[in-house]
Amino acid sequence: MASSSPIFTTFLLLFFLATTISAAKETTASPPTASASPSPTASPAKPSPKTPSTPSTPISSHSPLDPKQIRALQSLDIPTSRDPCSPAHNSTIICDASSPFRHLLSLTLSNCSEDVALSLTALKSLSTLTSFQFINCPISPIRFPSELTSNLHTFTCINSLKKLTSVWLSKLENVTDLTVSDVPVSASGPGIILDSLKKLRSVTLSNTNLTGFLPKHWHPNLTYVDLSGNHLKGRIPSSINVMENLLVLNLSSNSLEGEMPSSIGDLTSLQNLSLSSNTISGSIPDSIAAMPDLVHLDLGSNKLNGTVPKFLADMKKLKYLNLEKNSFHGILPFNASFLARLEVFKLGGNGNLCYNHSTLAVKVKLGIAPCDKHGLPMSPPPAKDTSSDSSSDDYSADDYSDNNKQEHHHGPSKVVLGIAIALSSIVFLIIFLVLLSRCCR
Ligand SMILES: *[C@@H]1O[C@H](CO)[C@@H](O)[C@H](O)[C@H]1NC(C)=O
Ligand SMILES: *[C@@H]1O[C@H](CO)[C@@H](O)[C@H](O)[C@H]1NC(C)=O
Ligand SMILES: *[C@@H]1O[C@H](CO)[C@@H](O)[C@H](O)[C@H]1NC(C)=O
Ligand SMILES: *[C@@H]1O[C@H](CO)[C@@H](O)[C@H](O)[C@H]1NC(C)=O
Ligand SMILES: *[C@@H]1O[C@H](CO)[C@@H](O)[C@H](O)[C@H]1NC(C)=O
Ligand SMILES: *[C@@H]1O[C@H](CO)[C@@H](O)[C@H](O)[C@H]1NC(C)=O
Ligand SMILES: *[C@@H]1O[C@H](CO)[C@@H](O)[C@H](O)[C@H]1NC(C)=O
Ligand SMILES: *[C@@H]1O[C@H](CO)[C@@H](O)[C@H](O)[C@H]1NC(C)=O
Ligand SMILES: *[C@@H]1O[C@H](CO)[C@@H](O)[C@H](O)[C@H]1NC(C)=O
Ligand SMILES: *[C@@H]1O[C@H](CO)[C@@H](O)[C@H](O)[C@H]1NC(C)=O
Predict the structure, then answer these.
(1) CA–CA distances in Å: residue 154 to residues 129, 133, 168, 202, 380
(2) How far is the CA of 221 from the centre of ligand 5 (A)?
(3) Same domain, 132 and 193
(4) Cα distances (angstroms) measured from residue 402 to each of 191, 223, 405, 406
(5) Is 50 exceeded by the pLDDT of residue 2?
(6) From ligand 7's centre to the CA of 364, what distance in Å?
């Protein structure tokens, strides 16, 4: 009896151990099954929208859409068998609530077929629109009637309308939000468009092969300026500082040159600044330190020189910092706690920049060499990276945080495994102690 009970307890404990381990395996296995389940549920979810759309139809039973506008929509290949104003019509159409007929306020034409044509009659009928979007519509532009251009506040043209001109865009006199991207725009420069559209608040002219220089005059009320991916040349004018409400300035991927004007620091509302992929030279102006809200600073792929300013580490909101592929030199003035705070940090491709191994003893790959005792890069820079692939040496904190996140993703399974191992160790310890106490008694 006395000899059988320890064996029995051992069995019991082994059983307990086996169940905990299998339970642990199940919990580690459950995340993949959980992530796999949305896709089977997603496919039956596709036919289901038919049912939710029926309860939503009573909302649209106000008044019908103006018959003239229905005909205009039909001419643009938009199905009108159902009420176009019904919310089931997936926000490509927004109507007002007037009677006896409702009118269109917003229309998005996307992925239209090539045989759709804009007609002056249709556009005249659509002149109640305040917002008009073209997305992937390779149709030919025509002159918009003045009633329409007078009402439009938002105009978007992405990879649509084949080709636009400054004359055509300048007619949109009351537009506050202008987005034109992936369409060639012919103009002597962005200035002629910006000067004509006096009410602009937000402007994107991106990947439009726009040529010329940046304007000398800017609207103080602009909050968003994206002129990236064009052929703009010359310097950044110091008059840029009048845009005191500017939140985003994106001048990346142009042919801008010269130094950054120190007046850029007057843009005290600025959150995102990108001047990447130009040929901007000189050093980073100290005035940047006076931009309290800066979150995103991208100066990569330019010809900036001088030392990396230490004040960047004191910019409390900075999350994204790209200084890669420039000509900075000297010792990187950052410590590990600053680098840990950044979500993205790129520094590679600055051959004369180095980091102090004793103050920045991190395993983080910075893409630059450690300094020797003279503060110069140690002779063999990370040659394996630069020789194999130039794009792989430009990641650092970026890689670091990604790795962190990955570890986090694998975290739960590791935790569970750890618990299982700890539990089994405890169980074995108990068995051992029980056996020990039995035999030594
Ligand atoms: C939105 O509605 C239009 C017209 O009914 C339809 O062609 C299009 O596929 C819908 N788009 C989405 C994303 O549901
Ligand atoms: C347009 O086409 C693209 C790609 O072909 C697709 O991803 C998108 O959902 C389409 N948009 C609409 C509104 O149908
Ligand atoms: C458009 O702007 C002009 C002045 O530029 C103004 O007279 C007109 O009332 C505006 N139209 C609308 C609908 O806001
Ligand atoms: C801009 O010009 C380049 C070279 O001529 C061409 O490949 C590209 O398609 C153009 N972009 C647009 C948006 O037209
Ligand atoms: C800027 O906006 C304010 C108020 O929104 C307006 O009063 C002012 O006239 C605008 N300034 C310009 C130059 O358009
Ligand atoms: C600037 O524009 C480029 C290309 O259009 C884009 O990739 C980048 O994210 C933009 N940056 C900011 C700060 O908006
Ligand atoms: C940085 O570049 C500017 C303009 O190209 C040049 O005048 C200056 O001497 C350079 N400074 C250093 C420290 O290399
Ligand atoms: C501004 O930068 C932040 C941080 O990089 C980014 O998450 C955000 O999308 C950017 N905003 C715009 C409008 O580009
Ligand atoms: C890291 O640098 C920042 C900014 O220079 C400073 O405020 C902070 O105290 C430094 N942290 C450590 C641990 O040295
Ligand atoms: C690196 O930092 C240590 C400790 O702060 C300092 O003693 C050393 O002089 C620095 N090295 C260089 C090259 O500046």
Answers:
(1) 9, 8, 15, 10, 55
(2) 6
(3) no
(4) 41, 32, 5, 6
(5) no
(6) 30
- Cβ–ligand 3 contact at 174 (below 6 Å): yes
Do 144 and 110 lie in one domain? The reply is no
CA of 280 to the centre of ligand 9 (A): 30
The answer, yes or no, to whether any atom of ligand 7 lies below 6 A from the CB of 265, is no
| Residue from 226, 230, 248, 319 to probe ligand 6 pocket by mutation (most atoms less than 8 Å from CB) | 226
Atom 7, ligand 5: residue with shortest CA distance: 221
Residue to mutate, 311, 318, 337, ligand 9, most ligand atoms under 8 Å from C-beta:
337
Query: ∠ CA 92-97-101 to the nearest 5 degrees?
Result: 95
One domain for residues 113 and 240:
no
Q: Are residues 80 and 223 in the same domain?
A: no
Instruction: Return the higher-pLDDT residue of 53 and 81.
Output: 81
Edge-first strand listing for the sheet containing 233-234? 233-234, 255-259, 279-282, 303-304
Ligand 4 mean position, distance from CA 298 (Å): 24
Assigned domain for 231 exists? yes
| Per-residue pLDDT tens digits for 153-203 | 999 999 999 999 999 999 999 999 999 999 999 999 999 999 999 999 999
Both 385 and 241 in one domain: the answer is yes
Which residues line the pocket of ligand 1, CB cutoff 6 A?
A: 79, 89-90, 92
Residue 94: give the domain boundaries: 63-137+153-161
- What is the DSSP annotation of 129-166? -SEEEEES--PPP-PPPHHHHHH-SEEEEES-SS-EEH
Q: Mean per-residue pLDDT for 63-88? A: 84
pLDDT in tens, 109-139: 988 888 888 999 999 999 999 999 999 999 9
Overall number of domains in the chain: 2
Asked if residue 54 belongs to a domain, the reply is no
Which ligand 5 atom minimizes the distance to the CA of 220?
A: 13
Q: Give pTM, 2 decimals.
A: 0.77
